[in-house]
């Protein structure tokens, strides 16, 4: 039952001079990317509906991205987290979607406490590493298989880490913050493909901010809530897997740093699992010269088909959580972009007419054709195969920083304009030099 204390002491000790430069640079790219995808979510239904509720609060503490309005710290985290997960364009890691919960907490608490950019970056890194530590105890496959969404399960604890660090919580207070956050963890994968999936990111970030602020006020929880009997770990590990739990695995790699080795950027605004299949479809389109109408059938064969990635494509949000629709879009349009996942795009006759040609199969042997499976395409009496490779943006194939900047400018520019997007990109890439985050947030909220 020393895990909480060990973790809290570790969080207090995270400083940039201890972190390898490669991990610092990737952390800055992750922050940049998350701010951009949150701005790209402005105006979409989930964020609009949550914002309408938040507007009933008259507080003026923390910034909601893309609007001059402020609200409470935890409600700002709720909106910004929901915005950042709306398009499912945000990053991934071993513990789900990290930045969608870390960055909103970082911005809200950092703004109200007027912390420096260096302090924000250190808090982000501490929160990321806590998520990595927890993921070594609670394997992602296990939690996904029995219905818990890892972002919503790990997120309250990681965002509580970020806010706790920026509030200068001591070790005892940080442990209470994790205990409070642990009672707010959860989110079901059965809600994938609906407005509620993006809400998972917002609720998780909000929960951590609230937990840290309550702990700072003297609010108490079980300080051993992480690894106590009937605590967090024993509650979220899938039934029958507790014998494999080893808390020592989580602490053994603290200070080894994992961001550069686990961070994954998305090129396309949909579930990460489909990214490689979209690449394969685009290569097939370019190499074959065939178009959607020319195809008789398309089988997307993957070594393992995750249960939460079997959402039937019926429209705007549901099309993001399966293979068929984005692969069909790639072959039809030669691109998969934000507008691909609109109801208007989904209801096009050429999509409706051809989507029935597509099916996804779980085929363990498919990994012999490509690392992530293979597209098997029948057309004009021929069978063609296109391997599904590890996508650019994966930690194994790091994306060039210039492409992250390009993605940010495209996303943020929709709301703040291209010039401001380019200027704020440079500021975010040098975040550790900022004496305060407030002037940057003024620009991202269109207050200056």
* CATH architectural category of the largest domain: Orthogonal Bundle
Overall radius of gyration: 22 Å
State the CATH superfamily name of the largest domain: 2-methylcitrate dehydratase PrpD
Which residues form runs of ≥5 with pLDDT under 50?
none
Query: Element order, helices and strands?
Result: HHHEEHHHHHHHHHHHEHHHEEEHHH
The CATH class of the largest domain is identified as Mainly Alpha
Form type: globular
- Whole-number tally of structural domains: 2
In the sheet with the most strands, the strands line up as 4-3-5-6
As a percent range, the share of strand residues is: 5-15%
- Percent helix among the residues? 40-55%
| H/I helix tally | 20
Average pLDDT for all residues: 94
Number of beta strands: 6
Helix and strand content put the structural class at alpha+beta
Please describe what this structure looks like.
- This protein folds into two domains: 3-267 and 397-444, Orthogonal Bundle (2-methylcitrate dehydratase PrpD); 272-387, 2-methylcitrate dehydratase PrpD (60s Ribosomal Protein L30, Chain: A, 2-Layer Sandwich).
- It is 51% helix and 6% strand.
- It is built from 20 helices and six strands.
- The protein has helices at 3-12, 21-40, 45-54, 73-86, 99-112, 117-137, 140-145, 150-166, 171-182, 196-216, 232-236, 247-252, 259-262, 275-288, 324-333, 343-346, 349-354, 401-416, 418-429, 438-444; strands at 62-63, 70-71, 295-302, 358-362, 374-379, 382-387.
- The strands form two sheets. Strands 4-3-5-6 form a four-stranded mixed sheet, covered by helices on one side. Strands 1-2 form a two-stranded antiparallel sheet.
- Strand 5 (374-379) and strand 6 (382-387) form a beta hairpin.
- Helix 5 (99-112) packs across helix 10.
- The longest helix has 21 residues, at 117-137.
- The chain starts with a helix and ends with a helix.
- The relative contact order is 0.14.
- The mean pLDDT is 94.
């Amino acid at each position: 039952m020393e895990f909480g204390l060990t973790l809290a002491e570790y969080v207090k000790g995270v400083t940039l001079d201890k972190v390898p430069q490669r991990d610092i640079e990737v952390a800055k790219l992750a922050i940049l990317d998350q701010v951009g995808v949150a701005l790209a979510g402005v105006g979409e239904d989930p964020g609009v509906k949550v914002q309408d509720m938040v507007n009933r609060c008259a507080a003026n503490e923390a910034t909601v991205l893309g609007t001059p309005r402020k609200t409470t710290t935890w409600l700002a985290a709720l909106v910004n987290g929901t915005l950042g997960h709306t398009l499912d364009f945000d990053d991934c890691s071993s513990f789900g979607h990290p930045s969608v919960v870390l960055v909103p907490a970082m911005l809200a608490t950092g703004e109200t406490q007027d912390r420096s950019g260096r302090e924000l970056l250190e808090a982000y890194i501490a929160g990321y590493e806590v998520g990595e530590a927890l993921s070594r105890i609670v394997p992602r496959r296990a939690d996904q298989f029995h219905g818990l969404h890892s972002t919503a399960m790990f997120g309250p604890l990681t965002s509580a880490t970020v806010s706790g660090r920026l509030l200068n919580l001591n070790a005892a207070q940080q442990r209470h913050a994790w205990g409070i956050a642990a009672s707010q963890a959860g989110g079901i994968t059965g809600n994938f493909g609906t407005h509620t999936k993006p809400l998972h990111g917002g609720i998780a970030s909000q929960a951590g901010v609230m937990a840290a602020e309550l702990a700072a006020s003297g609010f108490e929880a079980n300080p051993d809530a992480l690894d106590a009997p009937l605590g967090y770990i024993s509650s979220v590990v899938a039934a029958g897997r507790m014998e494999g739990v080893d808390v020592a695995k989580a602490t053994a790699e603290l200070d080894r740093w994992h961001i550069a080795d686990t961070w994954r950027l998305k090129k396309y605004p949909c579930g990460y699992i489909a990214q490689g299949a979209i690449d394969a479809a685009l290569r097939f389109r370019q190499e074959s010269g065939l178009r959607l109408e020319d195809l008789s059938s398309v089988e997307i064969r993957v070594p393992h088909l995750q249960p939460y990635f079997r959402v039937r494509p019926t429209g705007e949000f549901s099309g993001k959580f399966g293979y068929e629709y984005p692969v069909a879009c790639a072959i039809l349009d030669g691109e998969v972009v934000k507008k691909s996942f609109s109801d208007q795009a989904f209801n096009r006759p050429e999509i409706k007419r051809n989507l029935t040609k597509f099916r996804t199969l779980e085929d363990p042997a498919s990994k012999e054709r490509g690392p992530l499976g293979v597209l098997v395409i029948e057309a004009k009496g021929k069978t063609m195969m296109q391997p599904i490779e590890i996508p650019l943006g994966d930690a194994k194939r790091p994306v060039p920083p210039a492409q992250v900047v390009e993605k940010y400018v495209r996303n943020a520019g929709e709301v703040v304009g291209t010039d401001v997007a380019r200027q704020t990109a440079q500021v975010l890439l040098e975040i550790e030099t900022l004496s305060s985050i407030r002037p940057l947030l003024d620009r991202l909220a269109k207050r200056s």
